[in-house]
Amino acid sequence: MSVKIDETLTVECETGNYHTFCPISCVSWLYQKIEDSFFLVVGTKTCGYFLQNALGVMIFAEPRYAMAELEEGDISAQLNDYEGLKKLCIRIKKDRDPSVIIWIGTCTTEIIKMDLEGMAPKLEWEIGIPILVARANGLDYAFTQGEDTVLAAIAHRCPEPEFSVRERKETIQKFFTFHSRKKEELVEYANHPSLVLFGSLPSNVASQLNLELKRQSIKVSGWLPAQKYIDLPSLGDGVYVCGVNPFLSRTATTLIRREKCELIIAPFPIGPDGTRAWIEKICSVLGVETQGLEEREERIWESLKDYLDLVCGKSVFFMGDNLLEVSLARFLIRCGMIVHEIGIPYMDKRYQAAELSLLQDTCIKMCVPIPRIVEKPDNSNQIRRIRE
Amino acid sequence: MKLAYWMYAGPAHIGTLRVASSFKNVHAIMHAPLGDDYFNVMRSMLERERDFTAATASIVDRHVLARGSQERVVDNILRKDKEEHPDLIILTPTCTSSILQEDLQNFVDRASIISDSDVIFADVDHYQVNEIQAADRTLEQVVRYYLDRCHRQEKLDKFLTDAPSVNIIGIFTLGFHNQHDCRELRRLLRDLDIEINQIIPEGGSVEDLQNLPKAWFNLIPYREVGLMTAMYLNKEYGMPYISTAPMGAVDMAEWIRQIQKNVNILALCSSSKRVDYEPYIDGQTRFVSQAAWFSRSIDCQNLTGKETVVFGDATHAASITKILVREMGIRVSCAGTYCKHDAEWFKEQIQGFCDEILITDDHSEVGDMIAHMEPSAIFGTQMERHIGKRLDIPCGVISAPVHIQNFPLGYRPFLGYEGTNQIADLIYNSFALGMEDHLLDIFGGHDTKEIISKSLSTDISLIWNPESRLELSKIPRFAREKVERNTEKFARQKGIET
């Protein structure tokens, strides 16, 4: 099965046996990012053992994550799963008191058709803590797509514009400082529609992106996910959203369809070329003129010179496991490397459209052939191709 | 349903995969969804294996869920057969796929008609057994398969070797210090003039399994894995086995004496001479192993009467308890294991050596027990090591579950006479380093001089506004000061003041 985009960019699907990590691995970085969350993975020993090895040392710090381990009685539906989950959530509330509990569905819950979405609202009402359900299972998704399903679930809980969750608590306080604050903000930012960025990044990286946009007089209204669940940004009609990670196609779709936001499709801020294209696209959609981007990009490339000399002319083959491959390949091609093949578990052609076209442009600019993209590659075939 | 943070033993399919990847030229196929094949990563990460692991997944996805695997599993088996030409292919489900209840045995039967390699279905119930029990069962299943077949084809050579020889059963990949222990056992057996017939499964070939009965007897260093195989060989072929763990000076002597007994019984029927290993035991215990001498020294006498807690798999926990009490004079307030299925044996072994016994696989119970006992040292698994860190009690790691630390590049066996030295070191260092900290605390600090101001020049003080203070606070504490200083230095160079 092959689809051609333009004459030269080919995308194939091999449907082979390849290796990637289970999507529940997203728990390992999301629980650190969202500081008042608790992740409950409903699965079996296999899932638990995997996370134990993946989280390594962190698991001893008793992080805000736990396994609800399904035993034989649960699988054969002898025990009441609602009561089981209720008992665990009450304990979690007592021990950790999170602002939100996120249930992560696994392959097992899919097969036994456990109705997590049905039980969550009821339990939420009973114990008084928001409960979200994200199905991050290996039957449908790969690795980083786990983050995609979690963010899509969180997106539903974002408030309407005008009132954010925190603002509801602080309206009175704000009233008095309203005037002086507004004046400061007007000086620094241009007038443009609300912009929310989505994707989980370490907070210092997120700050850097905020600052880059600030240089262009663009204010970021919020991030999804925010550092704290109670600080979720407002979403709705008229809010513009833009993703920072290439694997967030489901979140993007949810934001467009359910929340009625406008999606800005840009290449992803990976590498100085990607970052510049990302900023440019955002600015153009929001109607703001860019300033000094070219020089900034040049300066960054200058500072990378030593590394560039090391990699120039060398070749790379992406076997594919984390869905970031297209952006990484594009960046490395811009650095002067040759990319033979890009293996990737899944690629949403619409969400990554801008990235794909930047890939083509970069290849033309650097005078290298455009690598073929293989979805769901087969590792043994790839090893054979590498040897050839 | 139970709330679990940590498990001592992994899921069943990991045990099966460990057996499969320990043998040479055996390929494992997992009937599993994406992501269940993290075993490959564990091997390259922990065991530092250089090659690709011979385990692939026959992916279970939505199609399989809807329509069944149909041809996919059989195709995958046949494909591996053609690509890799293994001697044996083992098909194993994982927790998820075993719920699907597909007839995997049927797929195996169909594939084995066409394929050149042998194909077996690893028959383990994922909800009843854990990693260790699954490994034991799968090993027995593989051995049984080959021996039964040879027996049926009447190709079995049941004549014993002329010179005394043994099989070592139970050395695995991803086992706790297994590779080092194996080397030590080889050395010992060479000293005792006993040949090694086969070591399974690590590095063994399934084609050679038919020669197992030629050895005089079997050695099972770790009873958790290998015992089932030994019992099978004993029942079908009358092979005696020794399942004492050769750990610690006293048990080493016992082990060698058992070997002596077995050799001498069979020497009557063969042309070999009788042996007497007493002088060897004496020499090794008193001179080659430093542990026995050390335990009489004043350094070690300091530890007499100190209290410890021991926890781990049955073999190691029992042996370490006995070593601490019998050989070093240290008290064991509580000893325990997570091998619940072997509880009876464990209790019997350490009866009289410790005050209390704890059999559980719930790490929080172990944590509570340690907090309650307040020992001077803990000897346990990685989990106990972290419990020790939290409670400020030193801990030595003596058992799986494993961590990268337990695959040292250097030579560190737990078995044999070299093992007694390693264990003595481990025990002593755990106590000593703990005491160092206490001494420093008592006598006032790790650094007696005031740290003189680290800043370059303090005449211009820089202003940090709230936003930047916030950024700084996101940096982990141990790096923060350094980052603060570097930022200020950069600012001064550029002539920035805030």
Automatic annotation (TrEMBL), chain A:
Keywords: 4Fe-4S, ATP-binding, Chlorophyll biosynthesis, Chloroplast, Iron, Iron-sulfur, Metal-binding, Nucleotide-binding, Oxidoreductase, Photosynthesis, Plastid. Residues 22-384 form the Nitrogenase/oxidoreductase component domain. Gene3D superfamilies: Nitrogenase molybdenum iron protein domain. GO terms for biological process: light-independent chlorophyll biosynthetic process; photosynthesis, dark reaction. Pfam families: Oxidored_nitro. One of its GO terms (molecular function) is ATP binding. PANTHER family: LIGHT-INDEPENDENT PROTOCHLOROPHYLLIDE REDUCTASE SUBUNIT N. This is Light-independent protochlorophyllide oxidoreductase subunitN. It comes from Cunninghamia lanceolata (China fir). The gene is chlN.
TrEMBL record, chain B:
One of its GO terms (molecular function) is oxidoreductase activity, acting on iron-sulfur proteins as donors. Keywords: 4Fe-4S, ATP-binding, Chlorophyll biosynthesis, Chloroplast, Iron, Iron-sulfur, Metal-binding, Nucleotide-binding, Oxidoreductase, Photosynthesis, Plastid. It catalyses: chlorophyllide a + oxidized 2[4Fe-4S]-[ferredoxin] + 2 ADP + 2 phosphate = protochlorophyllide a + reduced 2[4Fe-4S]-[ferredoxin] + 2 ATP + 2 H2O. It comes from the Eukaryota. Its cofactor is [4Fe-4S] cluster. Its EC number is 1.3.7.7. InterPro entries: ChlB/BchB/BchZ, LI-POR_suB-like_C, Nase/OxRdtase_comp1, P-CP_red_C, Protochl_reductB, Protochlorophyllide_Rdtase. Pfam families: Oxidored_nitro (PF00148), PCP_red (PF08369). Residues 464-497 form the Light-independent protochlorophyllide reductase subunit B-like C-terminal domain. It is an enzyme of class 1 (oxidoreductase). Pathway: Porphyrin-containing compound metabolism; chlorophyll biosynthesis (light-independent). Residues 12-431 form the Nitrogenase/oxidoreductase component domain. One of its GO terms (biological process) is light-independent chlorophyll biosynthetic process. Signal peptide: none annotated. Gene3D superfamilies: 1.20.89.20, Nitrogenase molybdenum iron protein domain, Proto-chlorophyllide reductase 57 kD subunit B. Protochlorophyllide reductase is composed of three subunits; ChlL, ChlN and ChlB. Forms a heterotetramer of two ChlB and two ChlN subunits. Component of the dark-operative protochlorophyllide reductase (DPOR) that uses Mg-ATP and reduced ferredoxin to reduce ring D of protochlorophyllide (Pchlide) to form chlorophyllide a (Chlide). This reaction is light-independent. The NB-protein (ChlN-ChlB) is the catalytic component of the complex. Belongs to the ChlB/BchB/BchZ family. NCBIfam families: DPOR_BchB. This is Light-independent protochlorophyllide reductase subunit B. It comes from Cunninghamia lanceolata (China fir). The gene is chlB.
